[in-house]
Design a protein that fits this description.
12 helices; about 300 residues; two-stranded antiparallel sheet; mainly alpha; 2 strands
């Protein structure tokens, strides 16, 4: 999940890259949304593949090929249509995320699932935060690699291509699928879980006598004479006194020049991206518990849109 989120490495330079290729402004939106669109369409396919075979390794290896090819196409620097196609091809590889979340659901206990999902999604967000920062050293690239020019615009594509190749080797040599669990053991485990739940006593009885310990009885309201309510004091404290000005009247959220506004923007984006896992983990974990285990890969693909 960490390398898949590093696609954000292209964000600081893609607009200028498109301008060099003579692309109109709307190509920026097309290039950014093409990545998510192809992942959205490929997610159900990878999810169903994972549910049928109960394996993940072959799916990851196959999906990573699209990432390698797509990022190399981004590096080639031919024209705007090739760049757009590269984002479509690379986005197909993100569909394997549905298989990964389905695998995590099948291989973790319900009480530990939120912790595991939190760790995985934290790695994803870390990639979103670190990806743009990689341009600190990628912007220094300026050399020729055969027929291709490596500069600050094409270097992110080459960098991601090499990173996905390394991930391919790591998955091929260091990752193995767990043996699939047969249907009989799944049925026995479900029956045991149901019996354990039925043996638990309810924490609160069906009926409780009124006035028992822990209950709160409303106190009768005292009638006021003539049925009138006391008048509230006039809001004199909120009115401005003569000679005093409201300090918030001239308040402006934008306090300073470009450097200060840039700092505000960076901090705001950092906090927004950093806070996404805390919002999404609870939804993903709950969703995995209310859906069938045999279709987790197919059901989890909408999570990749978060």
């Amino acid at each position: 999940m960490f390398p898949s989120a590093l696609y954000a490495v292209i964000l600081p330079t893609i607009w200028r890259y498109l301008q060099i290729l003579g692309a109109p402004p709307y190509f920026l939106g097309l290039s950014l949304s093409a990545f998510s669109l192809s992942g959205l369409l490929a997610g159900p396919f990878f999810g169903q593949w994972s549910d049928r075979t109960r394996t993940t390794k072959n799916i990851i290896l196959f999906a990573n090929l699209f990432e390698v090819v797509g990022n190399f196409m981004y590096f080639m620097n031919f024209d705007k249509w090739l760049l757009l196609s590269s984002r479509l091809v690379a986005g197909i590889g993100t569909g394997a995320g549905a298989s990964i979340f389905g695998y995590l659901t099948r291989s973790t206990a319900p009480e530990d699932r939120s912790t595991v999902f939190a760790a995985v999604m934290a790695c994803r967000q870390a990639g979103l935060l670190i990806g743009p920062a990689c341009n600190i050293f990628l912007r220094l690239c300026n050399f020729q690699l055969g027929p291709f020019v490596v500069n600050k615009f094409t270097a992110p594509g080459l960098f991601m291509c090499l990173l996905w190749i390394l991930l391919q080797l790591a998955v091929l040599l260091m990752y193995w699928d767990l043996p699939p669990e047969d249907s009989a053991s799944c049925i026995i485990r479900d029956v045991v879980d149901v019996e354990e739940e039925s043996e638990k006593e309810p924490l609160v009885g069906a009926e409780e006598p009124s006035g028992s310990y822990g209950t709160v009885c409303p106190s009768p309201s005292e009638p006021l004479p003539n049925g009138t309510l006391p008048h509230s004091s006039p809001a004199s404290s909120h009115s401005e006194l003569p000679g005093q000005s409201n300090p918030f009247r001239n308040f402006n959220a934008s306090r300073g020049g470009f450097q200060w506004q840039l700092t505000e923007f960076i901090i705001g984006v950092f906090l927004q991206v950093l806070g996404l896992p805390f919002v999404a983990v609870a939804q993903v974990s709950l969703f995995s518990k209310v859906t069938a285990e045999k279709t987790q890969g197919e059901q989890q693909w909408p999570i990749m849109l978060m």
